[in-house]
Design goal:
The protein is an all-alpha fold. The chain has one domain. The chain has 5 helices and no strands. The longest helix has 35 residues.
């Protein structure tokens, strides 16, 4: 039962790859902003003696963390990622600014795959054109 639900989830993409990538990038940058807020809130509360800044920043960071985790798990079928890559995306959110590093790495891999597909297309077009002459 669980295996069939996972199969249905992975083969029912709600977004195309470009939309999913845009949403994932927003979530990654928001999670990094949450880390900035948390670190700033801790520093502010340390020097002011009030816990309000740390409490507010902690709650905000927690919500942004959950948004990133939801995006990483919910968008991986639309992004064409494996379960392993989705798990690494989740793990990347644990250290401060890890979501930005993962986003940069995934973006590089995405651009490299697009370039390889474009190169194959150009090569195929040149071969077909040569064969028609």
């Amino acid at each position: 039962m669980a295996k069939s639900l996972l199969y249905r989830f992975e083969h029912n993409t709600q977004f195309d790859e470009t939309e999913a990538w845009f949403l994932f990038r927003i979530a990654a940058f928001a999670e990094a902003f949450g880390w900035t807020m948390l670190i700033s809130g801790i520093l502010i509360s340390r020097y002011t003696g009030s816990n309000f800044a740390a409490m507010f920043a902690g709650q905000s960071h927690g919500m942004l963390f959950l948004c990133y985790a939801t995006a990483a798990f919910g968008l991986y079928p639309s992004l064409g990622w494996s379960r392993r890559r989705a798990f690494v995306a989740l793990l990347a959110s644990v250290p401060p600014y890890g979501s930005l590093l993962f986003e940069q790495w995934a973006g590089h891999a995405r651009r490299h795959a697009e370039l390889a597909a474009y190169s194959r297309f150009v090569l195929w077009t040149m071969l077909v054109q040569y064969a028609l002459e």
